[in-house]
Write a structure and sequence with these properties.
The chain is of the alpha+beta class. It is 30% helix and 39% strand.
Length: 145
């Protein structure tokens, strides 16, 4: 049995767990306001969790931008799991999830510039100019299928 379990969120209890992880990572650690973090788009997204045993340790959401374009957003991994490849597992599982649905799916995201090397290691390439999002410097990136 794998140490970690990837799961699509299917209950209000799990969405609340996801929100707690996001609040801890973005609002408490990165000082992003809750108003910005919880932007009223969650109902338009599919949400995912990574569990270690019974503990949720990472989350992300994906918003459909068009029939074949999906944007990974709000990727959050609890601090004590950040150097253990949990983020890589989460992103790769999300990519596999959408490629299974449609092989022509395109995946993109807005990476904080500080962590763009992480996404490059997962076959994302930057495009366009850097920009401020929520007061943090970002770069748009797309996945090379």
């Amino acid at each position: 049995m794998s140490l970690y379990k990837f799961k699509s969120i299917d209950s209000s209890g799990e969405i609340n767990v996801s929100f707690k992880i996001r609040k801890k990572v973005f609002c408490e650690e990165q000082s992003i306001s809750e108003k910005i973090e919880f932007d009223n788009l969650d109902h338009l997204c599919e949400h995912f969790l990574i569990y270690k045993k019974d503990e949720a340790i990472a989350t992300a959401r994906v918003r459909k931008k068009s029939d074949q374009l999906f944007k990974i957003e709000r990727v959050a991994v609890l601090v004590k799991y950040r150097k253990l490849k949990v983020g890589s597992l989460l992103i790769n599982q999300i990519i596999n999830h959408y490629i299974k649905i449609n092989k022509k799916s395109s995946i993109m995201l807005h990476s904080q510039v500080e962590v763009q090397e992480f996404y490059k290691s997962l076959k994302f390439i930057p495009y366009g100019d850097r920009f401020l999002e929520d007061g943090i410097l970002h770069i748009a990136m797309r996945h090379l299928n």
